[in-house]
Amino acid sequence: MSKDHVSTRTPISTTENGTPETEFKPPRPRSSTDPVMQKDNKDSDSEESATNSSDESDDSKEPATPVPTFTAIRGRWLWLAFLKLAKPVRVLLVGLLGSAFFITPFLVVNLRFRSHPAKLQVHVWSLWFTITWAAGCATYMVVDSIPRLVVYVTGLFGGKIERLKIQVEVRYFT
């Protein structure tokens, strides 16, 4: 990409503390003589047609393999260890961590900023987020346990478990 297509910041003046103020210049529009624009604006009446174009694949060329732009390797061992845990344990762990995150502002305001004017707002929002997060995790665990509960109650009253179990698993896991 050429420099004229990149937005730049140029210093205008310096502020009182010596840091430069900058002005944002948006990218300049491409001209019609730009090779990229000429390639994109070809007429459909060109001499090359779809059947005799030079872009046809050649079997002697190796297929282009996509180059990964991002490879995540840091923390992978932690993620894999987390996935080895049972689902209820994972949900409980995520619920505890999320609730701890959302209750932190409440605790900080109560312990450090007792007379701050925003104390009431922090209490309301922090408690709302914490309760919502915990209720969401609890709801997930209840909904996730419904098929197991149905199979258990059916077996308790003498129903045919295998047929019901297959139907519940097919409906539940698809």
Total helix count?
5
Please state the structural category.
mainly alpha
- Total strands: 2
**What does the overall shape look like?**
flat
How are strands sequenced across the largest beta sheet? 1-2
- Proportion in helices: 40-55%
Beta-strand proportion: 5-15%
Radius of gyration, in Å, reads 31 Å
Unreliable segments of 5+ consecutive residues: none
Distance between the termini: 47 Å
Q: Main sheet?
A: 2 strands, antiparallel
Mean pLDDT: 74
Secondary-structure element sequence? Answer: EEHHHHH
What can you tell me about this protein's structure?
It is a single chain. Helix content is 52%, strand content 7%. The chain has 174 residues and is mostly helical. The chain has a domain at 81-173. A two-stranded antiparallel ribbon has the order 1-2. Helix 3 runs antiparallel to helix 4 and helix 4 (119-156) runs antiparallel to helix 5. The longest helix is centred in the C-terminal third of the chain and has 38 residues, at 119-156. The mean pLDDT is 74.
In short:
With 174 residues, the protein is mostly helical. It has five helices and two strands; from the N terminus they run E-E-H-H-H-H-H. Helix 3 runs antiparallel to helix 4 (119-156) and helix 4 (119-156) packs antiparallel against helix 5 (161-173).
Which key terms come to mind for this protein?
mainly alpha, 7% strand, 174 residues, two-stranded antiparallel ribbon
